[in-house]
Structures are given as structure tokens and as C-alpha cells.
Amino acid sequence: MGYQNLLVTREASVGIIMFNRPKVLNALNRATMVELSAAVDELDCDEGVRSVVVTGAGDKAFVAGADISELRAIADAVQGAEFAAWGQRILFKIENSSKPVIAAINGYALGGGCELAMACDIRMAADTAKLGQPEINLGIIPGYGGTQRLPRLVGKGRAKWLILTGDMITAQEALRIGLVDFVVPADELMDAAKELARKIAGKAPLAVSWAKRSINVGTETDLVAACAYEASQFGLACGTEDRLEGTTAFLEKRPPQFKGK
Ligand code: COA
């Protein structure tokens, strides 16, 4: 599809989704969310794409949240609940995508932007980035999964601190509490994110996908059931040509040639 609010590109086996409304700090209006949903589907179905980087246009913002003029226009409680559930479904698409998704946080990641980053698999931030859940300052609460993914990443106390104060934190602080996984100099961010994406793209794609799924499913269930699930995904990986190729290549002391079969 043609995108108005996103730039969707490919660099070899890495798909790139860039939010492209820099005048409003890449705020997520409905049209952008519809496009995001389509872009995730598009890249998920593209066999040539093995990993994805999500970032924001400009040097100021990753995504500065849901579009506040649209939040202002929500008519009532039911519309508000539907708005949140709809956005959550789109972020679940990222989390459940068969491809690993890396958030390259190039600036403000606030509200829905922070929630979007948390739905990604790995978060890499520029040293200039700022993160937070400032919804409380608007008289609302996070609605795209923030009250759930944030405590899972940083613990309940720190999540409550961030959500109840609306405070923004630096990339370094986000690294310290586990909200992001890497911090790099701003001018190196995209290269570093793409390098990481390329590295993962070179692995056996089915194993990558099932490892991601095993972590996602397993960390939301009890350990015994989670390990049983892991065993089933391990079994799937054992049924692939790539398992034979990977183990044979090791024994023959050569690099593996994975095919995603
Ligand atoms: N929704 C809609 N518009 C937004 C926006 C959002 N979430 N965030 C920023 N913008 C717009 C501003 O209204 C402004 O538009 P204008 O130039 O027409 O006035 C433009 O983006 C630039 O933002 P501005 O506030 O002037 O930049 P700043 O550098 O002074 O401040 C922020 C940057 C991120 C601190 C500030 O924009 C902000 O607090 N944004 C809202 C963050 C938020 O509450 N997000 C959660 C929403 S649930």
C-alpha cells in the first residue's frame, strides 16, 4: 500500500518502518496506526525480510505519543475503551510478528511512543532520547499496554513512579532500569540498530521466530507450562532443514547457509 505517514523501506533483509510526521514529533494519529498495522503485516509476509527496525523521522522524536487532538475528541467512555483496545491490537501485531523488531529510539518516546517501543523485541536508544508515560498530565492513563508492559520490564515500583508522576527519563536512566537494552551515540543509532538487525537476519529465520515466540509466550505463563511450550518449539526447530545445515556446518567447520526451511 502507499503510505502517507510512514516510510517503509528495505535494506537487503532488513525492513525499516520510519514514522514520518516530524512536525508533530511523529505523534500517532489513527491514520498512522492504520498504516503501521499494514506495514507490520506487509513486512511479516515478505520472505525477503528477516528483521525489522522501527524509528522516527527527524532528530527530535521517535514518537511523542498518541495524537493529543484525537485524544481530546474522544466522545465518551465506550469510545475511549475501543480506542485503547484497537491500538493494543496493533501493538500486539508487532509483539507477535514472526520477525524480530528492533526499536531505534532516536528522540522522544512518550506515551504511545514508549508503549510502541515496549512492544518491540529489543530497544536501542540514542543517548539524547527521552522516555516516559506522561498521560497522567492529560488526565488519562496509558492505554496501549503501558500499565502492563512497563512493570513487566522495569518492575512495579518503577512503573508506578513513571506512570503516576508522568516524569520523563533520560536514555541512560532508561538503560539503568531496563526500559531500553542499549544506549549509543545519537549519530550512530541507525547504523547500530541496522547492524543488530542484520546480525539476527543472518540466523536461521524459523529458529529466530520460534525463539521469540517461546520467550513471549513463556514469560506470560508459569515455568512448568512455559518449559513444555519451549520443548514444543525446540521440536519444531529440530524438524527444519536449517537444523541439519547448522549442525552439519559446525561439524564441517564452515559457516552455515540457512534457508528458512
Ligand atoms: N500529539 C499531537 N501533537 C503533538 C504531540 C502529540 N502527542 N506532541 C507534540 N506535538 C506537536 C506540538 O503540539 C507542536 O505542534 P505545533 O508546532 O503546531 O505547536 C509540535 O508537535 C512540536 O512540539 P512542541 O511541544 O512545540 O516541542 P517541544 O520541543 O517544546 O516539546 C515535548 C517536546 C515532547 C516535550 C512536547 O511536545 C510534549 O510534551 N508532547 C506531548 C507528549 C505527550 O503527552 N504524549 C503522550 C500523549 S498520550
Task: Please name the defining characteristics of this protein.
single chain; 261 residues; alpha/beta; six-stranded mixed sheet; four-stranded mixed sheet; 16% strand; binds coenzyme A
Q: Structural class, from secondary structure content? A: alpha/beta
What is the helix fraction of residues, given as a range? 40-55%
Low-confidence stretches: none
Strand runs, count: 10
Oligomeric state of shown chains: single chain
Helical stretch tally: 11
Which helices and strands appear, and what pairs or packs with what?
Blueprint: E1 6-11, E2 14-19, H1 30-45, E3 51-56, E4 61-63, H2 68-72, H3 77-96, E5 101-105, E6 108-110, H4 112-119, E7 122-126, E8 130-132, H5 146-154, H6 156-165, E9 168-170, H7 171-177, E10 182-184, H8 189-201, H9 205-218, H10 223-238, H11 241-251
Parallel strand pairs: 2-3, 3-5, 4-6, 5-7, 6-8, 7-10
Antiparallel strand pairs: 1-2, 8-9
Helix pairs in contact: 1-3, 4-5, 5-6, 9-10
Bound molecules: coenzyme A (COA).
Coenzyme A (COA) binds at residues 24-25, 27, 64-69, 108, 110-112, 134-135, 138.
